[in-house]
Amino acid sequence: MQLITSQIKQSMSGASWIRKMFEKGAELKAKYGADAVCDFSLGNPDVPPPAKVADVLHDIADNAVRPLGLGYCPNAGLPVFREALASYISKQQNMKVAPKDVVCSVGAAGALVSFFRAVIEAGDEVICPAPYFVEYGSYCGHFGGVLKSVPSSLPSFEPDVEAIASAITPKTRVLLINSPNNPTGAIYSIEVLKRLAALVDEVNSKREAQDGENARPLYLLSDEPYRAFAYDGVEVPAILPLTKFAVVLGSFSKTLSLAGERIGYIVANPEMPGGDLLVNAVTLTTRTLGFVNAPVIGQQLAAKLLDETVDLDVYDRRRKLMAEVLTNAGIEFTMPKGAFYFFPKAPGGDDIEFVNALQEELVLAVPGRGFGMPGYIRLSCSVDEKIIERSAAGFAKAVEKFKQ
Q1: How is residue 335 annotated by DSSP?
Q2: Of residues 229 and 63, which shows the higher confidence score?
Q3: Half-sphere exposure (Cβ direction) of 225: Cα atoms closer than 13 Å
Q4: Tell me: the pLDDT tens digits for 230-261?
Q5: How confident is the model at residue 28 (pLDDT cuts 50, 70, 90)?
Q6: Are strands 264-268 and 102-105 parallel, antiparallel or unpaired?
Q7: What span, in angstroms and rounded, lies between the C-alpha atoms of 129 and 183?
Q8: How far apart (Å, rounded) are the C-alpha atoms in residues 204 and 43?
Q9: Beta strands in 123-182 (DSSP E)
Q10: How far is CA 24 from CA 157, 294, 319, 379, 397, in A?
Q11: What are phi and psi of 186, to 5 degrees?
């Protein structure tokens, strides 16, 4: 009997690598003990939230026991939070944003899904550079969208603008980028981003000339949950001002270590023609997809913490330590400029074989093919420094198995 749809069955197969690593990690930890296993498979932010969280939670608790204290709120979010977000995003994006331009979401994932529901018709294409976050295909695929990945330029992992331009068709609806990037840690340069924005404007100009008011625009959609994670003085460029059809989304899962609270946002360029219609549509899809509204406690928390971040120096120390471990093991990699991941080459060229070799040394990584790029592995640095230090021998031993 066919209990589930073929589409979901295919999605489950495509997402299986992270799930396999999680299950393998549980198995190894049960057998050898949790302290013996070096698990770099999951991007679960482990640095404690800012200390101010405790005080804010106490204030929320004091005011919660009243009529509608924790009741439904407007689908687009608490007015006070949208106002605070608009000010926050205006500074972040170097562009004046009004509360009406912002929709609060159930994490960045909820923002993506709500946006895709609002703009994707069956058969529409979403183009993104590879490697990419594994769930993108499912997020647009739920509504008949097709994810088309385009290999990034190496070794920088920046988008290949010419290749992306060649991949665009009349069905292309969204150009999706993610910087700082998961899984590579790349931060896209302003030069590359300006070229992508110019490409979007060129495509939209041609579509408008051909179809007039019936033209369906190409959106430049920037997924930015790791925006605060930039190292060595590297700046994360503002996307919103680059094209009228820019849309930016983010979350506080990583920057505040509030992943379980599921608080994110999406904002459209205020100068977008018909932008109010898009914002209203995303507000509607937030409701009709069953999210209804972002968690109220999380909104109240984030509203008081917009100027805070976790201790980013902790992640930077881990980044440098992981680079040292990989270098000493003889593993080739591009130093990540942001986020908290590494995406090194798999010695021997086969990412699955190398991941299996690492498992024999009680080190867990995810094959790069799970992110659309075989031949590499992903390592998450959201782990204690002691685990990174302890993994050094395991990496070195695994590499030895692939030397000629």
Answers
A1: P
A2: 229
A3: 26
A4: 999 999 999 999 999 999 999 999 999 999 89
A5: confident
A6: antiparallel
A7: 11
A8: 36
A9: 125-130, 146-151, 172-178
A10: 29, 33, 24, 15, 20
A11: -70, 145
Q: Look at 37-46, 61-70, 91-100, 306-315 and tell me which has the smallest mean pLDDT.
A: 61-70
The tokens for 318 are 């881990």
In this predicted structure, the answer to whether residue 2 has a pLDDT above a threshold of 90 is: no
**Sheet strands (E) in 75-168:** 102-105, 125-130, 146-151
The rounded distance, in Å, linking the Cα atoms of 286 and 289 is 6
pLDDT of the residue at 140: 95
Rg of the Cα trace of the chain?
A: 21
Residue identified by tokens 């230090």 is 389
CA dihedral 228, 223, 179, 251 (to 10 degrees): 10
What proportions of the chain, in percent to the nearest 5, are helix, strand and coil?
A: 45, 15, 40
How far is residue 312's CA from residue 225's CA, in Å, rounded to a whole number?
Answer: 14
Strands (DSSP E) along 179-334, which ranges? 219-223, 246-251, 264-268
Residue 17 vs residues 22, 91, 158, 346: alpha-carbon distances, Å: 9, 38, 24, 16
Tell me, rounded to whole angstroms, the distance of Cα 79 from its chain centroid. 26
Closest CA to 334 of 203, 181, 223, 123: 181
Rounded Cα distance between 52 and 341, Å, is 27
Nearest to 90 by CA among 270, 251, 308, 276: 270
Name 67's Cβ contacts closer than 8 Å, sequence gap at least 6.
none
What domains sit in the chain, N to C, each tagged with a CATH number? 6-48+311-400 (3.90.1150.10), 52-303 (3.40.640.10)
- How many residues would you count in the chain? 404
Q: What is the mean pLDDT of the chain?
A: 92
Output the CA–CA distances (angstroms, integers) from residue 348 to 20, 107, 178, 330, 360, in the order listed: 22, 38, 28, 12, 16
255/229 Cα distance (integer angstroms): 8
Give pLDDT tens digits for 125-166.
Answer: 999 999 999 899 999 999 999 999 999 999 999 999 999 999
Task: Please return the burial class of 143, using the count of CB atoms within 10 Å of its CB with bins 0-12, 13-18 and 19+.
Answer: middle
